[in-house]
Amino acid sequence: MNRFDALLQPDRGQPAHVITIVAPAGYESWLGTQPARIRAILSAQRFAGKAGSHAVIPGEGEDWSVVAAVEDATSPWALAALPKALPPGSYRAEVPAAAGLGWLLGQYRFGRYHKAEDAGDRVLLIRDPAAIPELLRLAGATAQVRDLVNTPTQDLGPAELEAAAEALARRHGAAVTVRRGDELEQGYPMIHAVGRAATRERAPRLIELRWGAPTDPAVAIIGKGVCFDTGGLDIKPSSGMRLMKKDMGGAAHALALAELVMGAKLPVRLHLLIPAVENAISGDAFRPGDVLRSRKGLTVENTNTDAEGRLILGDALTRAGEEKPELILDFATLTGAARVALGPDLPPLFTDDAALAAELLAAGEALHDPLWRLPLWDGYDEMLKSDIADLVNAPDGGFAGAITAALFLRRFVPEKTAWAHLDVFAWRPAAKPGRSKGGDAFGLRAAWHVLKTRYAAASGVPERSQT
Prior knowledge:
- Helix content is 32%, strand content 20%.
- It folds into two domains: 5-119, Leucine Aminopeptidase, subunit E, domain 1 (3-Layer(aba) Sandwich), CATH 3.40.220; 137-459, Zn peptidases (Aminopeptidase), CATH 3.40.630.10.
- It is elongated, with a radius of gyration of 24 Å.
- It is built from 15 helices and 20 strands.
- With 467 residues, it is an alpha/beta fold.
- The strands form four sheets. Strands 7, 8, 9, 10, 11, 14, 15, 16 and 18 form a nine-stranded mixed beta sheet that branches.
- The chain has helices at 27-32, 36-44, 82-85, 99-105, 132-150, 158-172, 184-187, 189-195, 238-241, 249-263, 309-322, 336-342, 354-366, 401-410, 444-459; strands spanning 8-10, 17-22, 54-58, 64-69, 89-93, 122-126, 175-180, 205-211, 218-223, 225-229, 269-279, 291-293, 299-301, 327-332, 348-350, 372-373, 391-392, 418-423, 427-428, 438-439.
- Strand 12 and strand 13 form a beta hairpin.
- One of its GO terms (biological process) is proteolysis.
- Residues 304-311 form the Cytosol aminopeptidase domain.
């Protein structure tokens, strides 16, 4: 577990190593204002002001300082490379408080299966102490996503997702209800069909958490919880199965966002839903060509057992809609087509609500947590037609795969309900400063900022600083 609490402290003038930030474009001008000794030290270290580089400048006695070249000092990742490069100690830098997030996440480690490399703390002193609690919450939520996604399926199946929801509920006084195994067959038949081939210990389940006052506006957060995806009888090749421990990344995002909502005591009536399954192969596995009934009553011809995520989300979306929420957000590692279109870093956003889209996109841009809106193109709805059922789960041909998956989900969302679907990858193929290779959160901070802004403002609760 990553503990960030001690790593951000208010700057009260206590001893610390100074980090001087320089912009690459202005480095030569800055260098010209420095004493000859400083120029010589930087030259000896071959420091040329390249973005992402740093140099150490000896001072008097045991004192020393740091010069760091940063392309965008307003980014939360401005200082993120430094904690791994610098020794334990305290540091101060003239940067916006938001940079504290990267400082914290630059010290993230997933150490469940091997010894941590370096347990020493790198502490950043910041001048805005009011920003610290929010930064700690955001770092903790991001680390929670990373930890859950990084954990292999042997230690994180549907039961462990249930346990994570129970632990979350205990922390915040929420209530959890769970339907498991054959209990799902009547009320949630698509969740049951997808998960029924797994062992009894990994039986499918629908996890629901409720929190908040009955009089507060209702918000539903849904996360796809496919703890491992073999592809079912339409089995994936080994290369496609390698990272399928991360197919519960949507559930990880949903749990983390719920933690943020409850931790900040946002005045909403929260309904968290996680359909948790393992898409396994056995004699009881659902088959290509089967017609599945859904909680909504629609029938679905299963044209691809590897398009299982949208099936379990369909039942969860229907259940969420029965509570008449004013807003539904769902997170899912849903389609490879989204990765082909936008790559791993940029999650597609789907919504018919122009105001909600604008809020999410603006928050993503402001917070360096980008989203990209793709259309719910009505003309592609006909691709979901079936000859024997109300719709198919995966059209033939593969055209517009991310869009048709979102259109499938839309069939289960109540009309006139604000809804947004984020097709997240939940995985970082290569490390970046503050963002280690492996599981990661995408769109989480943008979604949280929208919820915080909408509901804190509506209730009169002061909005916390934008971080």
